Amino acid sequence: MLRRIGILAVAALATACLTGAPPATADEGPEQVPNGTFDTTTDPWWHTENLNFELSDGRLCSDVPAGTTNPWDAIIGVNDIPLVKDETYAFSFFATANPGKVARAYVQLPVDPYTQYVSAAPELSVSGNTYSYTFTSPVDLPNAQVVFQLGGSATAWRFCMDNVSLKGGAPPEVYTPDTGPRVRVNQVAYLPKGPKNATVVTDATEALPWQLKNSAGTVVAHGTTTPRGVDASSTQNVHSIDFGAYTKAGTGYTLTADGETSRPFDIKPDAYAGLKLDALKFYYTQRSGIAIDDALRPGYGRPAGHAGVAPNQGDTNVPCQPGVCDYSLDVSGGWYDAGDHGKYVVNGGISVAQLMSEFERTKNAATAKPIGSLNIPESGDDVPDVLDEARWEQEFLLKMQRSDGMVHHKIHDENWTGLPLLPHLDSQKRELHPVSTAATLNLAATAAQAARIFAPYDAGFAAKNLAAAKKAWTAAKAHPDLLASPSDGVGGGTYDDANVSDEFYWAAAELYITTGDKEYKDFVLASPHHTADIWKTGAMDWGNVAALGRLDLATVPNALPGRDEVRASVVAGADKYLAALKAHPYGLPYATTSYDWGSNSIVVNNLVVIATAYDLTGDVKYRDGVLEGIDYIFGRNALNQSYVTGYGEVASKNQHTRWYAHSLDTSLPNPPRGTLAGGPNSAIQDPVAQAKLKGCVAQFCYIDDIGSWATNELTINWNSPLSWISAFVADQGDGAVKAPGGCKVTYTTHGSWPTGFTTQITLKNTGTKAIDGWSLKWSFLGGQKIDIGWNAKFSQQAATVTAGNESYNKTIRPGQSITFGFNGQGAPGANPAPDLFTLNGAACA
Ligand code: 9MR
């Protein structure tokens, strides 16, 4: 909404069907026009094909072409406005025309004969006026239209409007969510040996008794609640319950307090092993440019989208927006961003980075376990499936780079499309939008990370990524302030970001970890993001990526001076989020009452920081914080629902998407299992949320309705932290904490030459029992290979090396050390000592 002071023009009277009813009463009625202020979007407004939409200066603008004959040859409108017979309405709007023109504004029947209940022909000026009319509806009609007819001019002109309002009639239905029993639990499962927490909504201010019952209804544990006062994120008076002392596995448990019984839940080892895979499988069905095989995803098969086949107009040969460039690019492939068909580099960047980090964690974290099969077309090749999936997106990001190294910010439809719409049926023109520094640095970062991660599997792809990363870095330094426009939001999201210094930091960090080069090291050390407290209310998102760099510098082996301080800074961030979680009676690490767009991803990303502190320190309080934090996502919340499709008794399933649009077309599926909904969003920018959730408080600003794109979309950058954290939780097994093995490893690289290096390893038994037979495992950072070794038997699979004892050094007595070594091959770039060694399956201290 553009706020204008001063001009309150013309109470011009409508010509048709106008009654003399007093405007004052109508003015006070409820607003019936959705999104008449155009603050962030043009949805759900539509236009005829000869027009366009542009959000400009807080208004909706359109260029009206020359040479139309009738007023109705060019129309902008909005549908489904309810009218109630005999109610009086106030219709008003602000509009401009350049040059000045007469337009037509109607509230009308949406079908032939298009009966007009108010009809006006305002004379629009360049500076603009507000026009107001009143009328009394002669009909009951659930779906009237508000339309602006702009045709009939021999010459072209530009129309802009704002604050379109129709007040009066019946108040919109009051929406009350069904929040079920007042005892709120993780509806999926608690780990037997992990923490177990719940929240009770109650008027009571004193502690209450609680009971845990098994599936037979037998009380198996009991205790008293802890009163927590009024929770600001829900305005509910709440108590918390800690039943962590109960450790027996089983299904169908319930928790009772204050006369209410929770939804059922399990106590189960490995309860998240399925989600670890489902959250990643989500990406295959988001793929563009390839047919989704129904045999791999029953119910989700569909033809390839945007693969250069009509009616698609892309993505194999995509031109720029008019005036932006004079070439076309093949930008096929990649993942669709969300519920739309757009593909955005800055959002693809964080998503693919988090998938690669989830994989990289398996090399560097003591509790991490391999990520299994995702049942994708590439399953069964020699590459872990998570990397095959990541590569699908990374290949697309590489295609968005032009020859000078700069990267296009995004590619999407010329105009927003309606729902439902399967990708292969989208007939809109596809366009490349300008290059941006942010997109270029996203490619620099992800390509640098890909270069080291793919090195053991595909040296050619790794080299291609490294070259692209370096080129992008150089280009971004030469063009450090090409920002994406905040008003380039028609047909796709803007993903604009006014500050790209964090993108520079992230890119430099990844390039340094991969190459070890001084240029990147110097940049990292000089960046304000290296030492700043970057642990804000949310640790990271597509526009705030310093944490991606900081976390990788802390967890991935590298030789940065001051790395201990980097690690300590991550632990400090975790302490902050853990404190927020402990202070929150619903146990989430999100210290705010103003919930942001995609708040669930913020919660999960903050958990990633806490989980990383566990990987770095082994301190179980961080691990327990993560296990408690996920409860919010799976039902321990004010709405008493899980936000992940297919997980929990009551779970989100109507996320905003054009092709899993089951609630609009029953022949289409719901989103696949393991899909995270965006979650509560205090700003409720979409019309459904505005109609149903007006005045909502934080946790309540959510509705599982396909029309609520501001609270209930699905996206690639929200499932990526979900999948990272699901893997972390799955890797905790039954929740028992493994003590580190009684060993210490000293890994010293004595010399290196262009094609190789020599390393000596000392393995010390720090325990109290003799080690009788040993097998020591570690991973190389990139493509290093063992050439020849001595005093141990070496084997290598991809980056993972196993060194086993010889018969003569099989036994290591307590306190004794043995030494062995090897010559390694082909270690271009950085070759730091690995951080993680496991002896006979347990991590060395
Ligand atoms: O996730 C994005 C959120 O951070 C922004 O505030 C919002 C408005 O710009 O856009 C969100 O991203 C949407 C994108 O613009 C278009 N595809 C769907 C994305 C998720 O809603």
Structural write-up:
Among the domains are: 15-168, Galactose-binding domain-like (Jelly Rolls, Sandwich); 175-271 and 585-609 and 616-680 and 698-737, Immunoglobulin-like (Sandwich); 743-843, Immunoglobulin-like, CATH 2.60.40. 24% of the residues lie in helices and 23% in strands. The protein starts with 22 loop residues before the first helix and ends with a strand. Mean pLDDT is 94; it is low at 2-24. Ligand 9MR binds at residues 40, 337-338, 340, 342, 493-495, 597-598, 709, 713, 715. It comes from Microbispora rosea. This is Endoglucanase.
Give the helices and strands, then pairings:
Layout: H1 23-27, E1 46-47, E2 54-56, E3 59-64, E4 75-83, E5 88-98, E6 101-102, E7 104-108, E8 116-120, E9 123-124, E10 129-136, E11 141-149, E12 157-168, E13 183-184, E14 189-190, E15 197-201, E16 209-213, E17 219-224, E18 226-231, E19 236-242, E20 250-257, E21 260-261, E22 265-267, H2 273-285, E23 318-319, E24 328-329, E25 343-344, H3 345-364, H4 385-399, E26 407-408, E27 410-413, E28 430-432, E29 435-436, H5 437-454, H6 459-478, H7 501-515, H8 518-526, H9 528-531, H10 546-555, H11 563-583, H12 599-617, H13 620-633, H14 687-693, H15 716-730, E30 743-753, E31 756-765, E32 771-772, E33 775-779, E34 785-790, E35 793-797, E36 800-804, E37 811-812, E38 817-825, E39 838-839, E40 842-843
Parallel strand pairs: 14-22
Antiparallel strand pairs: 1-4, 2-3, 3-12, 4-11, 5-10, 5-12, 6-9, 7-8, 7-11, 13-15, 15-19, 16-17, 16-20, 18-19, 20-21, 20-22, 23-24, 25-27, 26-29, 27-28, 30-31, 31-38, 32-37, 33-36, 33-39, 34-38, 35-36, 39-40
The chain binds ligand 9MR.
